[in-house]
Amino acid sequence: MLENIKKAKDVDELRTLEAEGSKYFWNIAASFIPGKYEFTGRKPRKGDVINSAIDFLYAVLYGIVTKSIVVNGLDPFYGCIHTLKSGRISLTYDLSEVFKPIVVHTVIQASRKADLATFKNSRLLKPKSIEVLVKHLYHRLSRESEKICKRKSIWHLPIRETNKFKEALIKRLEYNPYTYDPSD
How far is 76 from 69, CA to CA, in rounded Å? Predict the structure, then answer.
């Protein structure tokens, strides 16, 4: 898969490979979610509690990453991989990809430690589920920031990563993104 990514001829081919990799990933990730949730894979806005938790934490992540983009003087609407459309925060979506493994790990851990729930016949998470998810995400982001940036905050790592992206863009260097290692 990685070799195919390196050989991709254009952004469309890269998007196709990402979709294939995503299907493979979610099939494996589903095996880490407790059976009581009946999670069969990623389906945004589907309504089950795990997809709702992922959707919710992605929205939180988009807010954090958008702030890091603006702090670095970049435009969150002008991305590289995600399609440019009016009102779409394409660069936010591009840079959020770097941190999505933290979100997925957070949801997996929270699903094993807490009883995540939505309101009946709704995609909306119950307040206790939101509290648990946000607390786990903030803890994990703070820990990663402390490990990489030597500062315990949810903001330092995304701001540093966005700055690294900006420098690569300006100097026309290869961008080597941060990689999350859940075993640390």
Answer: 6
Q: How far apart are CA 176 and CA 125, in angstroms?
A: 35
Q: What is the pLDDT of residue 41?
A: 87
Query: What's the CA gap between 13 and 7, in Å, rounded?
Result: 9
Spell out the residues 6+ positions from residue 124 whose beta carbon is closer than 8 angstroms to its own.
52, 118
| Domains of the chain by residue range | 48-171
Class level of CATH domain 48-171:
mainly alpha
Residue 19 confidence (pLDDT): 76
**Percent of the chain whose predicted confidence (pLDDT) is above 70:** 96
Distance in angstroms (rounded) separating the CA atoms of residues 45 and 122: 10
Model confidence pLDDT, tens digit, residues 128-147: 999 999 999 999 999 999 99
Backbone angles phi, psi at 52, to 5 degrees: -65, -40
Please give the single-letter amino acid code of residue 155: W
> Shortest CA distance to 110 belongs to which of 183, 184, 37, 46?
37
Per-residue pLDDT of 27-85, as tens digits, reads 899 999 999 999 988 888 887 999 999 999 999 999 999 999 999 999 999 988 777 67
Q: Which long-range contacts (CB under 8 A, 24 or more apart) does 137-145 make?
A: 137/57, 137/60, 137/61, 137/102, 137/103, 137/106, 140/102, 140/105, 140/106, 141/64, 141/99, 141/102, 144/102, 144/180
